[in-house]
């Protein structure tokens, strides 16, 4: 009898617990789960799912027309507590769909626009890029460093501006060469051939550290860096182990943390629409742990990076967008 009572008690609690789950729809940006940007959002949701907080469904649109279709489909179903869109392109689609479904809650991750009944989670890419620019300058023998960006928009330009400010903080005379992926590229975020060509052009001009912010295109940057014996830097996820010793560090946008924390907010009925920016202080952005380059960089430079990090968090150093 006692065992039966315990079993009934557990089943009742399980039923109540399952009702606490929220249902989430995720519309990925171009590239789908093949990109670190999208993968981190998926990882944040999987963590929440593993803790019994959510059930979720994700889709991988191939163009902006499909963005709109998937967003409308999720919204029409009327059983998603939250619909999340990844990146600035999907954000523009949410801007349209949100007016059609005023009762649906949305979230934009990695966008810059403000939309009704939508949380926009942006990231202070300029802060971690400041650290990357400082480190790149410290590690450069030629006092010439470079950055390759996937496209020209506000978010990507934060990387560029932060990188440049960090470099100039260490040495005001450093040369920073920046380049955007050409609009003629079939996929600026998965074009390693063009990425390698641009990197080789930078290297021919004396650049000896290159930060890539172009997802799969960065594989071309890494290949060029290894062949020409210079340093590179990764982005989005920890890419340091892909070419150990060549990749100094990776600038990380901690989308996984942001999405996981967002789920907890929505589940606890603390949905608050509007724009927010997550930076070093919120663990929204970071560099990696230098697992392969700690000895190469050295304690003195790492200690200076640590001090710069603390100064940015305390607002002693202000990094502009």
Which features does this protein show?
2 domains, globular, alpha/beta, single chain, 11 helices, 46% helix, Rossmann fold, 20% strand, 321 residues, 6-stranded mixed β-sheet, 6-stranded parallel β-sheet, 12 strands
Write up this protein:
This protein is of the alpha/beta class. The chain has two domains: 2-123 and 255-278, Rossmann fold; 125-252 and 289-313, Rossmann fold, CATH 3.40.50.2300. The protein is built from eleven helices and twelve strands. It has helices at 2-19, 36-50, 64-77, 87-100, 125-139, 154-170, 192-204, 218-228, 255-267, 294-297, 299-313; strands spanning 22-27, 54-59, 82-86, 106-109, 118-123, 144-149, 175-180, 209-213, 231-235, 247-253, 274-278, 285-286. The strands form two sheets. The chain has a six-stranded parallel beta sheet, sandwiched between helices. A six-stranded mixed beta sheet has the order 7-6-8-9-10-12, with helices on both faces. Helix 2 (36-50) runs parallel beside helix 9 and helix 5 (125-139) runs parallel beside helix 6 (154-170). The longest helix is centred in the N-terminal third of the chain and has 18 residues, at 2-19. It is globular. The termini are far apart. 48% of the residues are buried.
